[in-house]
Batch of 2 targets.
Target 1
Amino acid sequence: MFSTEQLLIDARWAGYVTIAFAVITLLGWLLKWGIRFRLVGITGFMTVLTGGLFALSLGLYIRPTIPDAVRFACVFDMGGTNVVIAVPPTVTETQLQATLKQAALDLYSPGRLSQGTDKLTIRARTILHPEPGVSKLVYLGQVQRSLLSRQDNELAIEIDPTKLAELPQPTA
């Protein structure tokens, strides 16, 4: 897979070639070469290619992974300030905390609709089945992060210990 650094280097070299073709095209127009119209096409193509490589270098962002985080599913996300994720009912407190941190990293987007607040709230829930045919939603905790900066070091993580105690305990 291409890395961001490699695509940026490729975009730089494509930019140099584009500038060279632009100079040759300008020279072709001044000297009235017969190939000047083809040079315009080549220069235009190189401009599009350079722009595409540069855009790809901006778009590839590899999110860090938080150790001990479990897989989660996003069950509610309208692109606003509230998101709900589902975690397995076997999650522990340390795993839940790591998963909330991971979700805060993964679900951040500068394009979210702020709707009057600068915080993104991500709530974690699971489904318990206390008896056959009955499902119970249990909200275990939440994390709040800033919508203004990607590097938010002050995550507000709240875990409800009473709800966490309702989860089935793993058998040893």
Target 2
Amino acid sequence: MPLRFLLAALFTCATANAQTLSPDGYGKIRFGDRLATAEKRLGQRATLRPRDPACSIVRFKRYPRVSFMVEQGRITRADARTIVPNSAGVTAAMQPEEVLRRHPHARVEPHKYDEHGKYLILRKGTGKSLIFETSKNKLKRVRAGLKPSVDYVEGCS
């Protein structure tokens, strides 16, 4: 019986450290964190050091599938070019209709640049969102973060 508890504890620790995108953050990074705080927590410096203090995009070697928006020294958003594990349980294999069935509160908006695309927006309160981009009825990308940053279509201008 003690072995079973040990295995359960190890599984829980591994799951808790999983890299999951949510409206609150990704992995060990929390939206609203100062960049220096996130670097310290991860034990590594961001690459592509912020060039513009108003808005820059950085990456971390630990999180190669995700880039992070930094505004005024704080991480406000994360973008993935594919569908990464996320708090909504959405996978790349799902159809947009299935996402909407699972999340009936999601808002759907037309894509700004893709006439065949849409945004599926899952809000968390009034200040955070998880946004999935579709094209030709396939899930393509996901981003999450704080408003208004998460709503920017172009990212940093």
